[in-house]
Structure formats: C-alpha cells, structure tokens
Design a protein that fits this description.
The protein is α/β, with parallel strands linked by helices. It has one domain: Alpha-Beta Barrel (TIM Barrel), CATH 3.20.20. The protein contains twelve helices and 13 strands. The strands form three sheets. An eight-stranded parallel β-barrel has the order 3-4-7-8-9-10-12-13, surrounded by four helices. The longest helix has 22 residues.
Length: 337
C-alpha cells in the first residue's frame, strides 16, 4: 500500500528540516510497531556482489539522510540493498545556521547547506552497535569545519580508524560544498596525499583486525574532464575500492530564476542528473570495471537508475528521489532491474 502520496502534502507543509526529522521518527515508529510489511512495498532480493561485498539489491540510501545512525532500523524496513550513514566528523558540530534546507518542488530538487551537522563519530558507532541491521552498511566520514584544510587528513584518519570495525565500507567525503575549502581536497597533490595516507592506514587496519573494509571516495559533479581523469587514475594507482558519483552541485543553471537559486549550498535532485551521469561515464571510460562506481544524483525513477547503470555504475543511491517519490521508488527501481 503506497501511503506516501497522501502523506507528502502534509510533510511538504512543514519546514523542510522539521519534515525531515518528523519523517525519520515516523519510520522508526512504524518499524518498532511491527507495521513495516503493511505500509511499505515488498521487495524481492536481487543480490549483486561489488567491492567484495554482497548487496541484497543494488539500490542504496545515500549519505546525508541519517547523519548520526539514529534511524538505521526504520530505514532498513524500506527495502534498500544497503545503507550509507553520515557524513560524520571526529567531533560533534552543529552545522550551519538555519534555515539551511530548501525544497524546489517544481524542479524536484533540494538545496542544502547543512554543513556536516552531526553528533560525532562515537555517537554514530554506538547507534550502529545498538541497531538490528545486518546488511551492508557504509559509513561516510568527513572533517570538522574548524580543522584547517592542511590538517584534514588527520580527521579522515580518525574517522577511518574508528569506523573500520563496524563498517561494511567507508566513504571519504571530499566533495560537500558546505564545508569551507573541502572540495580543494579533490585537486592535484592534495587528493594524492590524502588517498595515499588512507590506503596506508587501511592496510594497517586490515592487518590489525584480520578483515578488509573497502574504501570509496565521494566526488562532485562539477569537475572538469581533466579532473575526472586525474581522480580516476589515482583510484587505479592506489587501488581504491569504489567511487561515488556524485555529491550535490554548486551550479544553478537548471534552476535559474527560481527564488531559491541564490541560496548557498548543494543542489540535488533532478537538476543534477545529467552532470552526475556524465561523471559516471567519464570515470567508467578510465576505470574499465577495476573500481566500483556507485551512482547518486537525480535518480527519481527506475529509468533514471537504469541510465546510471548503463553509464557504468554497479550500484545506485537515492536521497532527494526518496523525498519526492517516497519508499515506492526503491521498489520500482529494484523491480525494473
């Protein structure tokens, strides 16, 4: 029974950040009451193996929806093949001042400048331990806003060490536009130094724990062809396990004239679809299947997901599509695969 079309007008009548929090609490409540099977569509397993991990289906939740791991059980009930939680930082931080989340329904889009608001990695890991989730879990890590960019590697290493024992894979977020200078880490020598340090630490942790946790890098849709090629070649050189294409965009061409067009932050949803798919294609042409590609950005239908997979992705992630289409989107994509 698809109840979301009835709920959406009520949720959209609320402030976006309030609606976000209410929805997540409602998901947990439905799950705790044992009503998930009555409310959400049944989804058949369509297993796929990527990065050495077996996903029950190729449709995942993108990071950003559950920053603190507080809603893992409720989100799992929606039938995702995997969940990615975070972005989480070493220390708690409040994020940017409100308002910081804006809906653009006529464009099926969202602008956010949340700024890695989270309760810190220790809180997130406690929530993971307390959850009943047994599927593939990605933990997305970032740097604190007040950590100088030249010291960013230290923050990522803290996140990597702490998340390693509980994560199925770990995502390095260097592409959010909402933390000052963060995207600088995607450039030239800076990304090389960061990736080299993370791979060295991953090898140590593999030895220490006796199991291997894959690493993925999340990149922006606003990169040039030269930058995409540079990153792809680095991924191959350092044998990074995966890449997520893409984060939100700072471009505003697709929403020119909208009253929110001048709001700072990352634009997601339908307007980022074309740019995101182009990055997937650019990566795939260099990576030749040697590094897994997870596609995110503008997936609002099964056809959008198919487009990403045909462009070279092995997995897809949704976020804005879930807000506009509801849980039925997950079922529709899996059914079409």
């Amino acid at each position: 029974m698809n109840t979301y079309p009835f709920l959406r007008p009520l949720l959209f009548s609320l402030d976006p950040e309030t609606a976000h929090n209410v929805t997540l609490k409602l998901l947990n409540a439905v799950n705790s009451a044992g009503l998930s099977s009555l409310v959400y569509p049944a989804i058949a397993d369509k297993p796929v193996t990527v990065m050495g991990l077996t996903f029950k289906n190729p449709v995942g939740l993108a990071a950003g929806l559950d920053k603190n791991g507080d809603y893992i059980n409720g989100l799992n009930a929606l039938g995702f093949g995997f969940l990615e939680i975070g972005t989480v930082t070493p220390r708690p931080q409040p994020g940017n001042p409100k308002p910081r989340l804006f809906r653009l329904p006529e464009h099926q889009a969202i602008i956010n400048r949340m700024g890695f608001n989270n309760l810190g990695i220790d809180h997130l890991l406690a929530q993971v331990k307390n959850s009943q989730y047994s599927g593939v879990l990605g933990i997305n890590i970032g740097k604190n806003f007040d950590t100088p960019i030249e010291a960013a590697t230290a923050d990522y290493l803290i996140g990597l060490r702490k998340a390693y024992p509980l994560a199925s894979y770990i995502t390095i977020n260097i592409s959010s536009p909402n933390t000052k200078n963060l995207r600088q880490l995607q450039q030239g020598d800076e990304i090389r130094a960061l990736v080299e340090a993370l791979k060295t630490e991953q090898a140590k942790l593999h030895q220490e724990h006796g199991f291997y946790v894959p690493l993925a890098i999340k990149i922006a849709p606003d990169l040039t062809e030269e930058e995409i090629n540079h990153i792809a070649n680095l991924l191959l050189e350092f044998e990074i396990d995966g890449v997520i294409a893409t984060n939100t965009t700072i471009a505003r061409d697709a929403i020119a004239g909208h009253h929110f067009a001048q709001e700072a932050g990352g634009l997601s949803g339908a307007p980022v679809k074309t740019a995101s798919t182009a990055v997937v294609k650019g990566l795939a042409s260099v990576l030749n299947g040697k590094v897994a590609i997870m596609a995110a950005g503008g997936i609002l239908s099964a056809a959008d997901a198919q487009e990403k997979l045909q462009a070279g992705a092995s997995l897809v992630q949704v976020y804005s599509g879930l807000i506009y289409k509801g849980p039925q989107l997950v079922a529709d994509i899996v059914k079409a695969l």
